[in-house]
Write a structure and sequence with these properties.
The protein is an all-alpha fold and 202 residues long. It has two domains: 51 residues, Orthogonal Bundle (Arc Repressor Mutant, subunit A), CATH 1.10.10; 142 residues, Tetracycline Repressor, domain 2. It contains nine helices and no strands. α1 crosses α2, α5 packs across α7 and α8 runs antiparallel to α9. The radius of gyration is 19 Å and the shape is elongated.
């Protein structure tokens, strides 16, 4: 990659990273392009070199956030040194630590945008649905592994369990933001394993 190409890619990456940070705080509708450009010192003309519109910017932010999140998810759920159940527990424990570090603010960008944009923009809704369904499939595979290896006692369908897991988890994140403590996440952790998945004692 030439220095010029590298510089262009760096500028685009900075715009996206800045957009993610602001949208995590303000949401899509309340994020002005002037806020983003001012925060990263990029002129308005340069913005339209990389993005066709604010909607295009938002969609590319979703893609970038999802790619990075998928890498982090694979490090946890793909860690074969841990049992399937322990991988799920680590995912939740990491989320609890992250929430504590951020004082239960921000939450998950995908969940935030889903709540805000699903009824407003069909293109956003479709893209967010794709992201969430791919995550569900990832969790379903881990739950299926736990079931196959008899780490869980229930005969629950892995896809249904994954759907419930993500829905309850995102709800716990939202409740933690409102309460400004991690009690909802701790309750979710306790009940998902003891009641829903019924993990075996070791």
């Amino acid at each position: 990659m030439s220095p010029r190409s590298s510089s262009k890619e760096n500028t685009k990456a900075v715009l996206i990273e800045t957009g993610i940070n602001i949208m995590m705080e303000k949401g899509f509708n309340n994020t002005g392009l002037s806020d983003v450009l001012s925060a990263c010192g990029v002129p308005k003309g340069s913005f339209y070199y990389y993005f066709q519109s604010k909607e295009d910017f938002g969609l590319q932010i979703i893609n970038s956030f999802d790619e990075e999140y998928a890498e982090q998810l694979d490090k946890v759920l793909g860690n074969r040194q841990l049992t399937a159940v322990d991988r799920l527990k680590k995912y939740i424990d990491d989320a609890i630590v992250n929430a504590e570090q951020r004082k239960c603010s921000r939450g998950c960008l995908i969940a935030n945008l889903s709540q805000e944009m699903a009824d407003q923009n069909e293109i956003f809704r479709t893209r967010l649905k794709e992201v969430i369904e791919r995550r569900r499939s990832t969790f379903a595979l881990v739950i299926q592994e736990a079931k196959d290896k008899e780490e869980i006692c229930t005969d629950i369908d892995p896809r249904e369990a994954a759907e419930f897991f993500l829905s309850a988890f995102e709800g716990a994140i939202m409740r933690s933001k409102v309460r400004k403590d991690t009690e909802p996440l701790l309750s979710f952790r306790k009940l998902i394993f003891s009641v829903v998945l019924q993990t075996r004692s070791r």
